[in-house]
Amino acid sequence: MTALPDYNAMSDAEFRRTVRTFVETNYPDIPRYSLSRLHWDEVKPWYMVLSEHGWICPTWPREHGGMGLNAGKHLILIEEFERFGAARVNDIGPVMLGPLLLKHGTEAQKAHFLPRILSGEDVWAQGYSEPGAGSDLAAVRCEAVLDGEEWVINGQKTWCTLGMDANWIFILARTDKTVKKQAGISFLLVPMDAQGVTIRNIENLELEAEFCEVFFNDVRVPADHIVGRVNDGWSVAKALLGHERVFIGAPRLSAAALSRLKRIAQRAGAWDDPVFRDRYVALQCDVLDLSDLFETYVDRLRDGREIGADVAMLKIFQSELYQRISELMIQVAAEDAGLRHAPEGDRQLHAAATYLSARPTTIFGGSTEIMRNVLAKAVLELPS
Amino acid sequence: MDGSMNEDWQENARMIVESARAVVPADGALDRVRKARFDGAGFDRAVMQQAAELGWPLMWIGEEAGGLGLGLRETCALMEVLGRGLVPEPVLSTMMAGALLQEALPETVMTGEAVILTAWQDVTGALDWQGGAKGDLLIGTKVNLRGAVEADLFAIVTDAGLAVVPRSAEGLTIETAETLDGGTMDRLHMTGVAADFLPCARVEAVLQDATLAHSAYLLGLADRALEITLDYLRVRKQFDRPIGSFQSLQHRATEMKIQLELTRAAIAATARRFDTGADAATRAAGAARCKLRAAELAMLVAREAVQMHGAMGITDEADIGLFVRKAMTEANLFGSPRQQRRMLATRLDQEEAA
What we know:
- The complex is a heterodimer.
- Chain A has twelve helices and eight strands.
- Chain A is of the alpha+beta class.
């Protein structure tokens, strides 16, 4: 692979054209505009194309094999991929673990794991949540005990998105039960093929196995499979990149859903109904106003300004808006809303698919209720 | 837009906001606003004099015509401050007159001797402005002027052009009605007022500017009302705890904050588009969208503020009530949310065709 050009030096328009050409030229023969996540066996060709061109880790520094994109250019890349309908790859390695290792990993960890993410050799899963530790994540009970030169892990993780596709998982494990719960957690790396690891798939409301549970029964990993110091896992895990916290509130999901709503309404003969239009234009204004708010955060990223706790407003509003759009879809679809399969085999026209795929957005990545708690205290300075 | 222009507008906005301190007390005191209620037109001519001295009626008059030639970003910054202070004076209406009349704005308005109001709206509940002219006479009605009983001049908008007439003009009568905020909402009845019509091609554009500017007033109003309410949530104790520690109130407060920031972002982005040359369709949709959001915001914050103030919220002595009454009076000017949605819904077919 030859050295990549300095994409940040390009004009936005030039970079946009570059991305557009790239995706149109290189996208493999796999589904586009999929409403649900594709599994590794389906999406791997796209991952490998991105890998071969050095495009799989857009935000990593160039010296570590990334594209080194700044926030503005990264947003353009995302927008163009979504405009084309490119499938989302298994991106927990590129998006979450890579940046974590770059910040907290040892040189040996970086040298070993980063190239394997870049090449697609390793596919990562996230093991944070447990049956008793969801919003209250610091309550994790999955336990790791140091036995000589090895950690011995016992417990359970759940809601591991595409975990069945992964060959590695990073987990938050309890390594000290005697201290405040946040202070007794460590960040460990575990191969999925280690003895004692078993998984069980969980079907979601769309009857697809998008996530799984992972069980650890006397699983042994080397002592150096820890990121950061022992009992420092909580602060390691919290250090999500500023711009990921912004992009999770991007208006794209809602904007795309709104255009599907229009198609569904047209097909249902509701497009000219003034009762429908009253609701539709209100949602359209919501999407446009969200876009204007989102842009203020992108501007902050571009200018290198801090992103504060107030960024949670984006995700709260975008996820609830996405759901409200899907709720109007259900009304417009009328009695067809309950049909299991998409009309004309077109999932874009399937109100139920959008409705169900919109449900997790207010739950994962910080539930709306938790984020409102945070906003109330950190931004509105309301008392505890 | 280059960086220097960007800095220019920010510096202008900063200076205008600073100058507004002459009219809006920095500590947010509302004594003047409270006293001015239910007394004639509900506004203070001395404040309008100050506004003229600060050049506000010249805001939208081009520099070549002797005005300030400022844009919507500066205007919205000013209007937001006025909204925070619940300033009852008809500043926006005089700015509209300046924008419409340009160099024809009467000298007495610039000096502050005279107050001019813009009379554009034909009927309540619609945004039509074309009526009022028959031949070379003004015949018809213009509605929803704030404080017309105290104005000296009217800039009357018709499809035959603009006419500037004094309040004392033959054939002009004013029908006044008190409003909740302590001002008036007045109608001009014109039964053959002699007038010279000045041609004006900018009416739609000025109405869009004013709609956006009025949205900023509502934003300021809501912002201050939310601040007052949050202060109350922090100090008011029940069950030995500040009521702001209760999750049900916290979550409702965050919803107000989100709506507020959406409004702020929409107005800022739309003002920037206006200032950097948006086309007519973008302007119309942008003004409608901001007005829709701002009106809904003001009404949301008003009703939540009352509830969160408990029984204090339903007294006239608590300042929060001033915000509620102002929101109810002002939220539907330049079109209610229903009207904005109707307009936007009608435009869907034009989008289709385009």
